[in-house]
Structure formats: structure tokens, C-alpha cells
Write a structure and sequence with these properties.
single chain; mainly beta; six-stranded antiparallel beta sheet; 12 strands
């Protein structure tokens, strides 16, 4: 059985550029045209802040839109997002990354997205709860796969 040709069957794109942040930010528009699978991976660096669930949190949600400008953005519900154990639930809004403990640093977290054929673009929206003295270093990658990918769609060094 032949192995998966990962380099030609996957596209990895920056969904949120690496940076140290203390405030909410909208990620970049990820175009899913030609793909049928999408996942987001959050890579978190050192967390110097003392985090507390509900008091000092870093979370994220995912939005979908028919346009890259996100003029009509819709936040994904829990049934549209999944992890290795299945969908996150049935709630109206899916919190896909919930970093509320200092033990959550120096780690990567991933979630999959059920691509809606009526929406071509997706982005991650990061949210900070509380006042942060120290920035959190992180970036978010989008991994697209299984679609009809033209040769020039793979970005090795975006």
C-alpha cells in the first residue's frame, strides 16, 4: 500500500502569525476552495501570567464567511468543530482553545472543522479575559487536505 504523499496532499497556512499578544485579535482568512478537510493547530509558548479559569483566560473561536472580508461572519457552533474524541458538543458557540492554566504552555493543541459548502473562508478569533501584564507567545496554523490541490497551492514559505 503506498504511503501518503504529505507534501503534495497537505497545505499549511498561517492562520495567525507568531507574536506575543495581550489582546483579542482576528486571524487571517483561510480559503478552503479545493479542500475538504480543515484543522487549526495552536502552538503556545511560555505563559508567565498566573492564569485562572474564567478570570484570566486565553480562548479562541472560529468564524466562517462566504467572503474573505468576513462582512457576514458566523461563529461556529460546537457541532461544527471536533477533536480526536469527536464533536465538542451542541452549544451555539465552540470555544476551540481554552488556555486557563499555566500547565497549558509549551504545547500544541489541534481541532478539526466540518467545512460548510456555503462558506468558503474560515478564521480564528483569539480572546483574552482579564488584564494581562505579560504577553502570551503563540501562533495558529491551518492545515488543509484531501482536496483537489493545484501544484501552486502549497506554500512552503508564506
Amino acid at each position: 500500500m503506498p504511503g501518503l504523499d504529505s507534501i503534495n496532499n497537505l497545505a499549511v497556512k498561517l492562520a495567525l502569525r507568531p507574536d506575543a499578544r495581550t489582546a483579542d485579535v482576528n486571524g487571517l482568512a483561510i480559503d478552503t476552495k479545493g479542500y475538504d478537510s480543515l484543522a487549526f493547530t495552536l502552538a503556545v509558548g511560555v505563559i508567565q501570567e498566573v492564569l485562572s479559569d474564567g478570570v484570566m483566560d486565553f480562548t479562541a473561536t472560529i468564524q466562517k464567511s462566504a467572503t474573505a472580508a468576513f462582512t457576514t461572519a458566523v461563529t461556529l457552533g460546537e457541532s461544527e468543530v471536533f477533536d480526536k474524541d469527536g464533536t465538542l458538543g451542541t452549544g451555539a458557540t465552540a470555544t476551540v482553545f481554552d488556555i486557563h492554566d499555566n500547565a497549558d504552555d509549551d504545547t500544541a493543541y489541534s481541532v478539526g472543522v466540518k467545512i460548510d459548502p456555503d462558506y468558503r473562508y474560515y478564521r480564528v478569533v483569539s480572546n483574552f479575559t482579564g488584564t494581562f501584564t505579560y504577553a502570551i507567545d503563540y501562533c495558529i496554523l491551518a492545515i488543509l487536505s484531501h482536496g483537489d490541490m493545484p501544484d501552486d497551492s502549497i506554500e512552503m514559505n508564506p
